[in-house]
Amino acid sequence: MPDSPAIQIADVLDAARLLDGIAVRTPLIENQILNERIGGRVLIKFEGAQHTGSFKFRGAYNRLARLLPSERAAGVVAWSSGNHAQGVACAARMLGMPATIVMPADAPAIKAANTRALGARIIPYDRLTESREEIATRLARDSGATLLPSFDDPHVMAGQGTVGLEILEQAKQARANVEQILVCCGGGGLISGIATAVKTLRPDVAIYSVEPDGYDDTARSLASGVRERAMLDTTSICDALLAPSPGVLTFPINHAWLAGGLAVSDAEVRAAMRFAFSTLKFVAEPGGAVALAALLAGKAPSCPGDRVVVISGANVDPDLFAAVISGTD
Q: Nearest CA to 265 among 197, 326, 229, 216?
C-alpha cells in the first residue's frame, strides 16, 4: 500500500453502501468462444450496462450525493469528452442539481447529445488551444459550484472501486479463480479504485492497465516510477482515454499495486470492437475495448488461472461504430 493513499478499502465499501440500489450491478459474463480462443477462462465485466453507458456514473454519484443541500443548489461543473460528462449529468439530475460540462468541440456527437438530454449545459472548447481545467475552474469559482474532476478525486475513485468489489463477488459466485484483471486506463480513476478493492481483499491478483498506443503514459510511469506525459502529437480513436498524464492521486496507488501496463493500437481496438459485437453481443466504445484488445492481441501476460476483462463503456458514435463493424473505417 502507498503511504497515505487517497482512498482505502473502507472508502470503497462506503461507496458501495451509498450506491446500493442506485447504481446498476453490471454483469460479469463468460463466453465459450472467447475461452476457446484464449485457451483459458475469461470473464467480462460489462460497464456499458451502467447508467449512461459507462462506469463513470458510480464515481460521480458517490461524490455529488455527499454534498450539503446548499452545495447542491449551487450546482456542479466538470470537464469531459463524454463519459464523465454523462455520469455527472445523470447523477446531478437524480439529485436535483444543475450541471455544467466543459466538453471538447470535437467530442463524439452521441456523447454531447446524451449529456444535453440529461439536462446539463455544455461549454465547448478547443482541446488544442484551450485548457479545459482552466475553463471549468473559472466557471466553478464564479458560480460557487462544486468542481468535479473526472478521476483525481477520492470519492470518484472510491465510487469506481465498486467495480472491483462486484468483480470479486460475482467471480466467487461463478466459482472462478481470478488471477489477472485487465482494465482500461486514462487518468487512472477506475483502475486505482479497482486496485484498492481487489489488492486489499485478494493481494495475489495481478492487475494490468491498458491504454492506446502513444497515450500509454501510465505504462511508462509505472516503469519509470514518476508521472510521465502522453505523446500528445499522436492520435487515437480512444477518445475516452486521452488524459495527458496519470493523476496526482491515482498514480501512487497504481504504482504500488499494478503489475504493469499494456498498450494497444487502434487496429487492435477495432478488432476487439468487432469481436465484442459479433461474438459477445456487446457494443463497446473504442476506449472501453482496449482491455479486450490486449487480451485478443496476445499482449496480456500468461496466466494459469482465470482472467477478468473490463469493458468500461458503450458510448460510441453510431457512424464510427458502423464503419468499424463493417471494416470500412
A: 216
